[in-house]
Amino acid sequence: MEPKQPHVVIFPFMAQGHTIPLLDLSKALSFKGLKVTIITTPSNSPFILQSTSNHPKIRAVELEFPIVQGLPKGCENTDQLPSMDFYVPFLRATTQLRRPFERLLHEMSNGRDLPICVISDFFLGWTLAACREFDVPRLVFHGMGAFAMSVCKSVLVHSPHKHVSRDDESFSVPSLPLTTRLTLADLPDMIANFNPTTDPLAQFAMEIGDPDLDSWGVIVNSFVEMEGDYLPALESFYRNGAKAWCVGPVLLYNEMEDTKQTRDDDAPNKYPTAKCIEWLDKRRTSPCSVIYVSFGTQTHISNAQLDEVALGLEMSGNSFIWVVRSITWSPPDGMEERIKERGLIIREWAPQRCILTHPATGGFLSHCGWNSTLESISAGVPILAWPMIAEQRLNAKFVMDEVEAGVKIAGCTSVEEGTVIGRAVICKGVKELMGKDTGSRFREKAKELSLAARRAVHKGGSSNKRLDEMINLLINRGK
Q: Is 0.90 topped by the overall pTM?
């Protein structure tokens, strides 16, 4: 009997920002000839299946999402939560998937089809114990870059921020290059004020900390030419010689394969794509003239702040595509008529990768989630950073100071909750990023990084070689 084809099990956390890069990784592994099993739940399954429908080596297996007290029935993705007050109950609910996951591994074992590894999200720390029962290596995925992960881990261990007397006083971070200096405003709130005694999210993070550090390895969606200086620091926190596998940007592997689904894999329908591209095509004669504006799926922005964004964009005189997710906001009176020739406001899903790679797009006003940051860098588009939650402040710091591929909205990380950033500040940021003189160095740096990213994933490139090395080690483990 011929041995069964090696395969990998991938278990994403149920949030779009965590799922999408692991879908990209699944495709990269399938291009390498591996079979991939993605673990999901019933309401998340349609998105998984639609995104992988052109990839016959990838299959999805559903586990029933548990019904738990304190969590609305039917909420199987963080995008479906009524508010972030339900976030920790949602995290707790995912721990009840352990037994069904163990049964699935048992079935695979009986069928002599155990995976060569399980790649699971940081939040699913309990997968390590399940994997160990079957002697299957677990690799952890954070959805963050090496810089942000290194900073967070070092700050939690060494607390360098506790020795500054002012919020704007800079400090160095142990294990990182000495040139890396931060202020309190650069740190995620939970990291700066980490207190498992009073913060349920910090308590949950403490519980999954050891499974993270005891994993066989950590998958990093980045490339060494951009973040290699931070890999030694990151690896120093992991145990048993675990390695950080820098194999990205994983979104670019799909491009390599010269497949039509490269741009449309994740599109829920064709209409928004056609509408956006048609609008951008009319501006092809003005390369890099349009700024794309999107703040991700997890951020709530008040209607008052959306008004200021709208008027700031209008005041800048720059062409723009803006994705607005609020269902209660309407543009200020008369604005849509005034900007109809140079502004497009999108209410539905937007094909972000298509927009960023279009020749007319020259900048991205972004919340700096790591997926969006990588998509922008991969497209060679500089970033106007407006970080809001989680590690986005660190990503903005990285974009501005470490790779110099963008600029930040003034005051966006130091304002008190509820403060509205005014239209004049937004207008100034847009002009700085998009101006021919002021923005040229950002565009040049972004183009350099884009070329390096593409070289990294192509045959012989740093990320491609590391992905091959990781696969070979896992296949030959124990031989």
A: yes
